[in-house]
Amino acid sequence: MSVLKKLFAAAAITAAIFAAPAYAQDNVKIALVVKSLGNGFFDAANKGAQEAASEIGGVEVIYTGPTSATAEGQIEIVNSLIAQQVDAIAISANDPDALVPALKRAMDRGITVISWDSGVAPEGRQLHLNPSDTDLIGETIIKLAADRLPDGGDVAILSASSTATNQNAWIEAAKKALPEKFPKINLVTVVYGDDDSVKSTNEARGLIASHPDLDAIIAPTTVGVVAAAQVVTDQNLIGKINVTGLALPSEFKQFIDNGASQAVALWNPIDLGYSAVYLSHALATEKAKAEPGAKLSIGRVGEVTLDDTNAAAMAAPFQFDKSNIEEFSKIY
Ligand code: RAM
Questions:
Q1: Distance CA 30, CA 45 (A)
Q2: What is the mean pLDDT of the chain?
Q3: Pocket of ligand 1, beta carbon within 6 A
Q4: Is 168 a residue whose pLDDT tops 90?
Q5: Cα-to-centroid distance, 199 and ligand 1 (Å)
Q6: Which one of 32, 84, 255, 273 is CB 3.0 to 4.6 Å from 229, fit for a cystine?
Q7: How far is the CA of 95 from the centre of ligand 1 (A)?
Q8: Angstrom distances, CA of residue 153 to CA of 55, 146, 149, 235
Q9: What digits encode the pLDDT tens for the residues 231-255?
């Protein structure tokens, strides 16, 4: 290379370095805080989160959460993430209010905070990403049971924790849909398994023991639905009690195969984790602003529009049954 060419090349490199936005050279640290570790749904979301990180480049995703699904455990984690000076926190919250002070502290220190999957109150985050429309999910979980009960029947809900924002919103929506759209379905009770397999198993056993006429258990949690289907299988109640709700196909396929369940629903957890990281990065690097009406890109997944509480919803839930669960069980 001639001296002149070398000089030009050096100048071009210098120009490129200075032209690049500051964050392109930084390592943007995004913490994906989940309700609890050891939950396959969140492991799948983390897959998508890591995918977004490598697609964007210069991003480190820290996957973290408490060992059990409590707000206290998440508050401790948020405090340590503030001390570590991460750039963004994307949280699926165990409580809409209890986390607000800690998350406010994070935002006061310049950390971007979003919630996804299970939200925090608007004052504790910049935006919230719902996997799907709340009313639609509420109606879907009842419809899944009602479709198999043409003459009506008794159903019970086995939820996650009693403070989980997402499950509580879905249950409220389900209760709203019942009298209008499913008048023959009788919701006998709601119990809470805390997204813990052992507690969910015990709660499912308790439901069956105290409601001998139960026709269906609806679990709007991937942990609870597996526990309930296992109990129905173990107690030889297949054909008597239909288990349904929100399930991860890879964990639940066996219960569609053995008939403990006819059908379940869910959205793509990989896309959800991907989108949470995508949005966190856009806000943290000031490529996007969270404000009502804003249309925000979520990369390969598309785009979402923020409502007047800075919340957005992704796609409609997808139904899994004998015809397609095998195929989806290989993906998530
Ligand atoms: C569990 C969690 C999560 C929920 C899914 C459907 O894994 O409670 O928050 O979205 O179920």
A1: 14
A2: 94
A3: 35, 39, 41, 92, 117-118, 160, 166, 195, 221-223, 246
A4: yes
A5: 15
A6: 255
A7: 13
A8: 48, 8, 6, 20
A9: 999 999 999 999 999 999 999 999 9
